[in-house]
Each structure stands twice: as structure tokens, then as C-alpha cells.
Amino acid sequence: MTRKPLRPLARILAARARGSNPDAVERENLRLRHEEALERARHRAEGRILVLGVMLLAAFAIVGAKMSVMAASAPEQSRTAAAVNDITAARADITDRNGRILARNLVTHSLYARPPMMIDRERVAAEIGEIFPDIDVERLAARFLDPDRKFVWVKRRLSPEQAQQVRDIGDPGLKLGPREMRLYPNGELAAHVLGGAAFGREAVNTAEVIGTAGIERQFEAQLRDPERDGPLELSLDLRAQAVIREVLEGAVRMFNAKGASAVMMDADTGEVVSMVSLPDFDPNARPAGLVTGDQGDSPLFNRAVQGVYELGSTMKTFTAAQALDAGLVTPDTMLDTTQPMRWGGHNIRDYRDYGNEMSVRDIIVKSSNIGTARMALELGPEAQRDFLGRLGFLEATPIELAEGRTGRPLLPEPWSQMSAITISYGHGLSTSPLHLAAGYASLVNGGTAVQPTLQRRADPEPGERIIRPETSEIIRDMLREVVTDGTATFADVEGYNVGGKTGTADKPRTDGRGYQEGKVISTFAGAFPMDDPEYVLVVALDEPEDRGGSETRRTAGWTAVPVAGEIVSRVAPLLGVRPRVELVELMPEIESGDPDGITPVSN
């Protein structure tokens, strides 16, 4: 830019020639120069304001777009930069079908020590030992006195009372860290279903609560989901669970049994209302598993799911149902049971020698091995295997338990005609009580398959048709007759029309060579009320012995059946099952001279 002079010579000379003041030229040029400078400054300021406005507009547009994206996306759990804070302790509650709490997180404290800050380390160790008798005081004191230790874990979780006692010690080196723990307020109730939880990653002020078994482990992701709204609702009924456990515990003592299990299931939906396995444990203090020996002896072992046993004559019902549905027999078809049946070098005998032909109905009511074996031969091993496979007997049940997949049935290989015979009356195929409950539900509910579940099903889909409704009705009549006139009369609870089948199976030897002398699994599988079954019940006792009479009795009719009857009588009213009461018609009795003028007539 060319700079103009303030006093140009030509203009100065012209001004002097005119007699004007030459300084006016300089002042005029100076004014013009100032005006040009101001104009340039104004344009520069306007440009800067325009650029700033564009930048602010762009920033607001970016922020608005980001907010729109965040509003349209799913919410994410906030995370802090601190590494210890990514430990998530929160866990959803678990409730029964009526909203009763089965598992919940509880705010508690952990106890740790900073030895360099402690005043009297030996005294503190001794006082801690008085609060926690399970702590080795000498070992704890040695850790406190170790000059290389700056941090010592003392206790992972404390009750509020214990935390207050620790505060009362008053030593500045003792520290309490807040954390959450898993609480099971009902103790042993539903222990095998819930499984238990433990601490995973830990910090002084928080700890990761993770499921170790059962429902807690199976639904780990759902229970820890921060977006979950509400508890995990199970199909269990806590009232039924408490009653069945109490009755079963009494039965174990009464019959000197090694263990026991029971499953109660909705006959239409497969929802498990109660599942009990004894011995059990307290999930608040879950014991360690067995390192050696038979895992079936551990209180952690769920006999209802993991235990696979030969379930004896309860399997006869499936043989009869298949034969009836295939049209091979009718309830009144007579079969030869007069003599033991010889097959493959083995004699098939009945528990009692009836000595005559029996109808299919009587074969089930009186529990004839020979009659059931003859039906199995008519059906053939392939048809039998297919039928039991459709009922779920060949695979582990799909129950929502971490241990569910371990309860895999033991199948014969090959599945020969001899296998078909022994399986027809409950030997040669080992399954769990849960398999048996689901199978009976499929037979008595009208003939549609059910899958056992521990989750509530608001609108369950109907399963595959297994047998015709007419066949299901015949089976219900037979099972009812077993209770009224057969081997399960102790299960006949007035008003509830209980039906079912008994089963007593010898226990195999651990080396696989034959069976143990005098040791059995006694089982009752049934349903109620049989005119329109609502619930299926399976009770199994391991090595029961009734020593109350002149001789020791082990059969299901004397052991498992009365237990089932007691369960039905106490649980059915809790579940809202109304007893069927015979109506009595009141009529005037004129000719008899009855002073009351009426006589009862049973309908």
C-alpha cells in the first residue's frame, strides 16, 4: 500500500499562490488518513465477528446433533475413570411366584487393617478374636506384627452388630469398608434352586457379587444387568417349599433314609412349584464340595436334578400309555401273567405271584412286571425309545439350573429287546425325579408334553402331543385306582382324588456288578386331583427302612407313599386346590319314622 504524504509539494505551492494556509492541506490529509484507518478496522472487526458467529453456529449444531443421537440411543451405564469403581456389586432380587424374597443384596462392611497405623497390635488381634471366634488370633497377630505388611484383610463381611463391636475397639488402624453381600433370608429353603453367590473381584470399598451355582449362576447376566427393572421371579411357591421340606425332613428321620427329594410341578405348564433335595445346606454359608468319594453324598448335590436313578415301577405307566395309545391293548385286554417270563436267560417275575391272567388295568394297579414286559415286547425297543425320547427321558432336562445339564440319563447300549423289557418296569434306564415329574405331567394333562421350568410362564405355548386325550383319561383312571385299591393307598387324601404309581428299585453296586442287598430307591409319582390334574408330585427316598414292624419294610408303599399323602394334605389347601366333597341330598323320610324326617343319600 502506497502511503500518501501529508504535505504534498504541489498542493503546498498552489495554496501559497492563492494566499491560503498551507497547514490546512496537512490537516485535511491527516483527517482522510484517519478515516481510511477506521474503515479498515471496521471491515476487519466485521470479518472477525462473522467468523466467530460461524464457529459458534457450527459448535451449537455439533452439540445438538450429539444430544439427538444420545436421546435416540439406549442408555449406557456410566463409568468412572477409577479402576476400582468398575466393580459392580448391584444384583437384582430373586422372588417366588408371590413376590416373597428369596435372595437380595444387603449393605454390609468389610474389615481390613493398616498395621503401621495401629497402636497396640496384639491387643487388637485378641479383641478381634473375641468378636470372630473362627479367626486364628495368633496367626492374625503375627500378620499385624510383620514389618513388611502395610495391609491385612481381616474379614470379608460383617454383620451390623460386628461392625459396631469393631468400632468400639477404637484402634485407628482398623478400617471398615462399605460393600454389598448376597443374603438368603430363608436359609436352607430352596438352597439347591438358588445355588449361592460369592465375592469375585474385591476392593476395600466394594466387591463383585457373582453366582456360584443354581439360579444365581444360570441367570448371572440378567441379575447383574443395570437396565433390569424389577426382580427375577421364579415359579416356586415359598409356602409349598417350606411344607414339603419339613415333611421330607421328617421322613428322612423316620425311615432312616440316606437322602430324599421331591418335585411338585404344574401339570399344564411345567412350572416347578417346589423342588427339595436332602441333605441340603445354607446358601449364606455355602460349604465346599467333596474332593473325594461319592459326590451324591455331598449336601451340594441336587438329587432332584443331578441324581439319576432306576425309578422302578413308576415307569410302568409309560409302557401302558404307549400300548394303549398305539391300539395294541385296551384297559380290559387280558395278558398272561400266570408264570414267570423267560427271556434271554433271565426270569421275569412279579413281586407277588398272582397266578392268573390280568387285565392291563390290573397290571398297573397291582404292578405286574410280567404283564408290563409283554406289552413292551409288543411295542418293540425302537418304538419304546422313540416314545421315551419324546417325553424327554433321553437327555438332560432343560431346567434353568447351572447343574441341570449334569443330570443326563444313563441309557442302555444297545437298546435291545431285553433292555425294552427291563426298562418297561423301571430297570436299565436311570433318570432323575425331575424327568419323572415332567413325564407324568405329559401323561395326565391331556397328553401334551411339558418342559420343566423354574420361571413363571404367563402364557405358555402348548407342547407336542404325546398321547391322545382319551388315552390320558384312561391313565388318570388307572392311577387313581392304584391309590384307592392298589399299592399306594396311603396316598389317598380325602377330597383331593390323588392318583399315582409306586416304584421300588434296587440300587446298583458302585462297581456296576449287580445290585446292593437291601438298599433301594423308593418312589411315588402321582398327580391331583385326577379328574382334572393341576399338580404333579414325585417323592423319592434313598435307602429308606421302616423298622416299626416285626420286619424291616423298604417298598414305596410303606415309605414314599405316606410321605406323598402328607404333602398333598398340607400343600393342596395352600395352593388353592379346593377339595371335592360328595354332595348329600336331604329328603323327607316319612315311612321310616325317622324323628328328624330326613335320610342322607350319597350322590
Kindly summarize this structure in a few lines:
This protein has 17 helices and 20 strands. With 603 residues, it is α+β, with helices and mostly antiparallel strands.
Characterise this structure.
This protein is of the alpha+beta class. It has three domains: 49 residues; 150 residues, Penicillin-binding protein 2a (Domain 2); 333 residues, DD-peptidase/beta-lactamase superfamily (Beta-lactamase), CATH 3.40.710.10. Helices cover 34% and strands 20% of the residues. The chain has 17 helices and 20 strands. The strands form seven sheets. Strands 1, 2, 3, 4 and 7 form a five-stranded mixed beta sheet that branches. Strands 9-8-18-17-16 form a five-stranded antiparallel beta sheet, with helices on both faces. It is elongated. The C terminus is likely disordered.
Distance between the termini: 125 Å
- Count of separate structural domains: 3
**Helix segment tally:** 17
Instruction: Please name the CATH architecture of the largest domain.
Output: 3-Layer(aba) Sandwich
**How many strands?**
20
- Supply the CATH superfamily name of the largest domain: DD-peptidase/beta-lactamase superfamily
The structural class is alpha+beta
Taken from the alpha-carbon principal axes, the silhouette is: elongated
Helix content: 25-40%
Task: Reconstruct the topology from this structure.
Layout (H helix, E strand, L loop, with lengths): L8 H10 L3 H51 L21 E2 L5 E13 L7 H11 L5 H9 L6 E7 L1 H10 L4 E10 L7 H4 L1 E8 L2 E8 H5 L1 H5 L7 E2 L4 H17 L4 E8 L5 E7 L30 E2 L5 H10 L8 E2 L5 E3 L2 E3 L9 E2 H6 L3 H11 L1 H10 L26 H8 L5 E2 L1 H12 L24 H17 L13 E10 L6 E14 L6 E8 L17 H12 L12 E5 L9 E5 L1
Helix pairs in contact: 3-4, 3-5, 9-17, 10-12, 10-16, 12-14
